[in-house]
Amino acid sequence: MQIEAKNKKHVFLRRLNSDDFGNLFDYLQNLSAETKNRFGPHKFDRQSIIDFYDLKTNLGYIALTIDTKEIIAYSILKIGYLEHDSGRLLSYGIILDNNTDSTFAPSVADLWQSCGIGNKLFQFILSDLSKTEVKRIILWGGVQMNNEIAVNYYNKNGFKTLGQFSYYGDNYDMIYEIPTNIL
Ligand SMILES: CC(C)(COP(=O)(O)OP(=O)(O)OC[C@H]1O[C@@H](n2cnc3c(N)ncnc32)[C@H](O)[C@@H]1OP(=O)(O)O)[C@@H](O)C(=O)NCCC(=O)NCCS
Prior knowledge:
31% of the residues lie in helices and 30% in strands. By secondary structure, the chain is of the alpha+beta class.
């Protein structure tokens, strides 16, 4: 799917596949230290990328420039929930289900942040999920409270805050219930 970013550049959105791994490696290496610190569902070396996508419940979504085919945004959507986060989620009264829950981690290249790509890629993921049983999207390890752009981004996209926890600083757990008219 092709979209126009706020900077008027045209960008293509699609699912990641194994042919993209080299390009994805370059994308991850080029992220700033701050963005790397905010986004870390898997390690950034080549083998870790391959191992991560060996698990078929892990789906990747990318935005690419039309002209250079460079990856400029990368989001992960895992079908199911993380055992690591399940204790906290249960403590909020959430009944977890590996078929209907999913876990989400977004990133956008530094030079492309605040250009509307994160919003558009999230909408693209929602439309892709309409072919699955998934009904809820939970943040991967929550979001750091001081990550103002990400907190705004999740609020803007309809995520609700479940609670707070402390892990290398203060964080929110957030969840999105997919409206039935999208499913
Ligand atoms: C968080 C992130 C994925 C958002 O993607 P993005 O493409 O930059 O965001 P968008 O331009 O689509 O903007 C989405 C919303 O985020 C908020 N936002 C974006 N830029 C902002 C800024 N500079 N200041 C405050 N809020 C901002 C706004 O609410 C915006 O909605 P609006 O433009 O409709 O008002 C991206 O900034 C990013 O990769 N950040 C670093 C990694 C990270 O923090 N990942 C999340 C870990 S939990």
